From TrEMBL:
Record-level Gene Ontology MF annotations: translation initiation factor activity
Keywords, sorted A to Z: Initiation factor, Protein biosynthesis
Domain DM2: 71-157
Species assigned in the record: Vitis vinifera
Chain coiled-coil ranges: none
Domain SUI1: 181-253
Name of the protein in question: Eukaryotic translation initiation factor 2D
Superkingdom per UniProt: Eukaryota
Amino acid sequence: MGGAHQVGVLVHKISVKEDKHKKEVVLNSVNRNHPEYTSFRPEKRQVEKSDQTSDHAASESRSHKTLEVAEIYKPSVHVNPIFASVGVDTGKLFSASEATDIVFRYIEKENLVKPTDKSMVVLDAILCDALFKGAIKKGSTYPTAIHKKELGHTFVNRMQAHHVVTRGGESVVRKGALKNIQIMTERRQGNKKVTKVSGFESFLMDAEALASELQKKFACSTTVAELPGKKGHEVLVQGGVIEDLAKHLVEQYGIPKRCIEVLDKTKK
């Protein structure tokens, strides 16, 4: 009786028949319009795992291409008194805007804005030394005021330039301004063109990996050579591919166009 009741419950969704000899229940048909059938959604565990793998691979690809370049500055002996006066650590690195904010904090603290002309800043001894000490020729008169528009640029130029390059999870801080990538095409023996690229290591790019990639990209032979008397390497590509190579570095590695110098020695 219990078995008949169970079948009665199921008959709305499926049609079954009991085989008395084998003691088995055989499925005859399925009601595909039944609400429980139409609302059923199978678990896609394997698909989700595959999607996660795909997303991870895409993320790795993006991190390979993603590049962030920033100019930063370290306080020098010239500007240290300004930072100390407003209680800022001189051992840290600052962006140009952050450094500019600090010098304006000092101006506000010392009330140095010219009352009769709000666009001008009066130079006290500390600010004057920070901006001009050692930069004014002997015998010349030190300025007594500076325009607000010139202040930030002048102040930042008195600091020590650094730059930070970040690609994916790797980040490097170096002294000095960021050096550009150089791409040059010239003629070799037999009037054959060769394109050389250097300076890419500043952007966290590997010479061997780049050479291998360019070999496939341009279907030509590539070699890696150590730069004479310098640190770093250059990649030599057979053929005049200067424009395509520059475009490839921009699109695939995210190198800013302003950071690429090109020179075609084959053009007269």
